Every structure is written in C-alpha cells, then in structure tokens.
Amino acid sequence: MKKIAVFCGASNGTKPEYVEKAWRLGEEMASSNIGLVYGGASIGVMGAIADGCLGKGGKVWGVIPESLQKMEVGHQHLTELIVVDTMHERKKIMYDLSDAFFILPGGMGTLDEMCEILTWAQLGFHHKPVYLINDGQFFDHLQAHMEYASKEGFISETHLKLYRLMEDAKSALDHFVKISNP
Predict the structure, then answer these.
(1) What residue segments make up the domains of the chain, in order of their start?
(2) Spatial contact of 76 and 15, defined as CB atoms under 8 Å apart
(3) Pick among 3.40.50.620, 3.90.1530.10, 3.40.640.10, 3.40.50.450: CATH of 3-177
(4) For the whole model, what pTM was predicted?
(5) N or C: more exposed end of the chain, with fewer CB within 10 A?
C-alpha cells in the first residue's frame, strides 16, 4: 500500500473549508487505497483528514511526540499511533513510512515540516514527490516568496521544481496515483 504523509495544522484555521477539504482528502485517499501518515492529532485539520480517511475504511498512521500528545489530543482510533520523544523523530518516521508528501494549510509546524522535507530533497536524501496544496490560494504568498528567493539567488530554478504547486488536493492525489501506477 502506498502512503502519503500529510503535513497540516492542529487547528481549524479561520475558514470551515480547511477542515472540510482535509476531511474529503482523507476520504479520497481511503477510496484510492492510499494510506495516510500524519502528525497523530485528533483536532484541527489533522484530525479532519484522519477522520475522513478512517470513516471510509482507510489506514492511518499517526506520529506524535509524547509532549504534544495532550496538547494536540492524540487520536485514539488509528491503524497505529506511534509516540516518539522528539519532533525530529516524528519527521523521520513520517518520512520513512511515506511515498510522497502533501502540504495542507497549517502554521509554523507545517512550514517547518515542509522546509525540512524540501531541504532533504535538495540535498538528494530523497526523491519522493512533494505537493504544496494551494486550495483557496493559501500558499500564494509563500510561492511568491520562493520565486523571489530564487530571483535573488538563494533558491535555484532546479530546486523550485522539488515540489509541485497544485490547485487542489484532488489534482495532487490524481497525479500521485498516476505516477505511482504507470
């Protein structure tokens, strides 16, 4: 079974669409027989994607540091909940379990996970696809900054291609399924 790590927020954000779209992505992953690897929370966008996937009979692996288990309310109904000591362990296990990465709306933690996985790709540590889900233009400003950093000589054109900016999660999932099953 192919698995996608989804980096996203432990909060709901200001728009109900963040939670609704995450829920639908979870359902679509389950329907496509793709497992979900995520941060292990039962709240926010994280909880929504897990519940959507589980609700359609999908498999979900959560990875959560012990220190965040109470704050992020670790999900108790997953295929497997892996409790670790550090954020570094969390990201490494999520990476090891996954065949691709989706970045959904989130805050500092989501951006940290995205930057680390892209840095690993830049350094050649992996060649797994990374999708920045720009549903509702959430990442427009980030994309503009990445292009500006490239123009200023800090990110090469080649490294800008380490991720795909996708209009929505369905497009990203369809692309991943297509490249995974040639």
Answers:
(1) 3-177
(2) no
(3) 3.40.50.450
(4) 0.96
(5) C
- 80-137 pLDDT, tens digit per residue, is 999 999 999 999 999 999 999 999 999 999 999 999 999 999 999 999 999 999 999 9
According to the model, what pLDDT value does residue 143 have? 97
Cβ 162 vs Cβ 118: under 8 Å: yes
Tell me how far apart the alpha carbons of residues 114 and 56 are, in angstroms, rounded to a whole number: 27
Residues whose CB falls within 8 Å of the CB of residue 92, separated by 6 or more in sequence, listed in order: none
- Give yes or no for a contact between 132 and 104, defined as CB atoms under 8 angstroms apart: no
- Strands 60-65 and 35-38 come out as parallel
CA distance 32 to 141: 31
Categorise residue 40: left if φ over 0, alpha if ψ from -120 to 50, beta otherwise. Answer: left
Q: Are 61 and 82 in contact (CB under 8 A)?
A: yes
